[in-house]
């Protein structure tokens, strides 16, 4: 077997001159984080081919694949935050709204209304901290200098995937309904929502009834609608405001 190529990022090198090592099969990646590296390699190869990105590699556990995708979405959503920062201000968006819903931020001792940009940042930070918490996701933290560290994710931790995905969905929805031009530019460049939506549908992360962004004709994956009555736990409805419904989550 050929020796694996050297995969190093050189300080000071331009982005377009980086990552220029040959693609490797996942089983050839000798790294503690080989699943993440493999996913990022697929994204660099063709980020528009979302069907290929979501397809679970043979040697990877189904839950681990979801986990690495969610981590990656958090990483890439930070680019959307940067794009939104100039227009999604406390003055323009004093509350986190999307499609007639008001979302309360769960990143505080008691849930509270945060300006949209703060809600987004708090949500991304919270999701990232949770996904990196060795109490819930222990295997990834173990460094044994061997690949194939991941075996599985503890069953009780799986419920966090849906909670995280629901909150991440709102970030896309706020951008879509309140900052459409920025959303379109970001989505055209990254296809991140398309990837996230297919991930959600494939692994039942976001219930269909919470999908508020209209199906887009230029998404190249199948948009089969599926009834999914699971996971309605976050509905804490307050209809005191016309049009706007508060969700504590
Ligand atoms: Zn905004
Ligand atoms: Zn907050």
From TrEMBL:
Residues 222-233 have a biased composition (Acidic residues). Residues 240-249 have a biased composition (Polar residues). It comes from the Eukaryota. Keywords: Metal-binding, Zinc. Residues 216-249 are annotated as: Disordered. InterPro entries: MOB_kinase_act_fam, MOB_kinase_act_sf. Zn(2+) binds at residues 88, 93, 174, 179. PANTHER family: MPS ONE BINDER KINASE ACTIVATOR-LIKE MOB (PTHR22599). This is Putative cell cycle-associated protein. It comes from Hesseltinella vesiculosa.
């Amino acid at each position: 077997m050929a020796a694996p190529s050297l995969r190093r990022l050189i300080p000071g090198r331009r982005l377009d001159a980086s990552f220029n090592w040959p693609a490797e099969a996942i089983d050839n990646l000798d790294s503690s984080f080989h699943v993440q590296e493999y996913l990022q390699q697929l994204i660099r190869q063709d980020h528009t081919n979302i069907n290929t990105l979501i397809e679970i590699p043979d040697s990877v556990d189904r839950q681990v694949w979801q986990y690495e995708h969610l981590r990656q979405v958090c990483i890439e959503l930070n680019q959307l935050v940067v794009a939104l920062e100039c227009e999604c201000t406390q003055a323009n968006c004093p509350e986190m709204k999307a499609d007639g819903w008001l979302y309360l931020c769960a990143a505080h001792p008691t849930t509270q209304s945060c300006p949209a940009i703060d809600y987004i940042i708090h949500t991304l930070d919270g999701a990232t901290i949770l996904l990196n918490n060795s109490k819930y996701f222990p295997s990834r933290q173990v460094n044994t200098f061997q690949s194939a560290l991941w075996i599985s994710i503890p069953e009780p931790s799986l419920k966090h995937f849906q909670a995280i995905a629901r909150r991440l969905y709102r970030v896309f929805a706020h951008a879509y309904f309140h900052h459409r031009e920025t959303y379109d530019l970001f989505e055209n460049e990254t296809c991140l929502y398309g990837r996230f939506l297919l991930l959600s549908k494939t692994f039942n992360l976001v219930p269909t009834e919470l999908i508020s962004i209209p199906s887009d004709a230029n998404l190249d994956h199948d948009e089969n609608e599926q009834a999914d009555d699971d996971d309605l736990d976050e509905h804490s409805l307050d209809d005191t405001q016309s049009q706007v419904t508060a969700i504590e989550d």
